[in-house]
C-alpha cells in the first residue's frame, strides 16, 4: 500500500513507543469491540535490536482449515507498502480473517468486526509485520535507527522472522512465502534475497525455509515504471495526446535524475508525475480509476486507536496508531527510486515468484510491471514472454488472466485496484492458495527451492 494518509509525528513518539514496549501482556479476554474469536492467535513484538529496544509489532493468525499437519502448513508473511504504512491495514481492511466496518451497534465508535470470507489464512498461517520499525505499532528507539535502505530493512525483517520461527517448534520447517503490495514491491524482494544469501552461511537447522515471494501492484524497478504512466493513462482514455506529451517530459526528468544518482530529487520528480496525472484526470484516486472515492481505510485506523483494542493486541493504550508514518517515509525518501530488480532476478532462479496487479491500478499497475519484467536478466524470460496468457476463472466466473513459465507467474485480476484483496477477496484468496499449492492454472513445472529442514518436536 502506498502512503495515502499520515499525521504529524515527532521524535517524542519514538520515546513513547520505546516506553510502551515492555508494558501490557497479550490478553485473551473478549471485549465488545474485539470478541475472543476475532483475536489473533498471537500478537506482540519481535526484537530487531535488543540493545535499544527497537522491535517489530506482529499479529499472527493460524490456518483456519489446514490441509496438512501444522508443522508442514505453509506460512504467509504480509508486508504493507508506503514506505511507512502499517500492515494492520492489510490485516483489518484487506486480507485478514476479520474486517472493520461501520456499525449501528451500541458502542460510541460505531464500529464492528465482520468475517472476511476471502481471508488468506483459510489454509495457511498468516503473519502481519509492521515494517520498517517506526511503522504502525512497531517501535524505533530513535528516528536515526529507522532503515534508510533495503539492506537495513531486510536485516531487521530477518531478525524478526527468525525470532518468530524460534518461538514455537511447529514453525521451524513450515514453508514460508513472503507477500506484500505497493512499496513492499521492494521489501519483499529485499528480505527474500537476504534470506537466500544468509541461508548458505547457516547450518540447515538455522535456515529459513523460504519457498517463494509474491508482489502485488508493486514498485520494484522505479526507473522503468515511472516512464509508463503517460502511456497507461493515454491508452486508457484518461488523457489526451498533449497531456501525454507533458507527462512524458516530466517522466524523462525523473529518469535523468536517477541516472545521475540524485535520488532525493528523483523521488520528488516521480511525485510530481503522479500529481500531474491526478490533476489531469480528476480521479478520486490513482489506485483505482473506477472508484468515486478513495479506499475507506479510516475505519481500521479508528478501530486501532481504541484503548480496549490496543489492550487486546498487547499494545500500550497510550500509543497513537498512524496508518502511515511521515518519519518512516522521510527516512526512506532517497530509497524510493532505487531498483531491486536484480533481487527478483536472483529469487526467480532460486525460488518461485508471483507478480499480480489489479486491472484498475494506475499507480503501480499492469503496464508498469510488464515494462520491467521484460527487461529481466533471467534465462527463462524469453520463454515467459512467449507463454500463453491463460483465461483464469474462479467458480466458473472470469477472474482474470495468468501467464506463467517455470518459476515466474504473472496475474491480472479483474475488478480490482491497488488494494487488490480488498476489492476481490475471494479471487485473491483463490490466487494465493492455488499459487502456493500449484493447482489449476498455477500448476505445472515449478522451480521452487527445496528444503532439507527437519522439525524437532
Automatic annotation (TrEMBL):
It comes from Durio zibethinus (Durian). GO terms for biological process: proteolysis. Transmembrane segments: none annotated. Belongs to the peptidase S10 family. The keyword Nucleotidyltransferase does not apply. The gene is LOC111318041. This is Carboxypeptidase. Its main location: secreted. It is found in: Secreted. Its EC number is 3.4.16.-. Keywords: Carboxypeptidase, Hydrolase, Protease, Secreted, Signal. The keyword Hydrolase applies. InterPro entries: AB_hydrolase_fold (IPR029058), Peptidase_S10 (IPR001563), Ser_caboxypep_ser_AS (IPR018202).
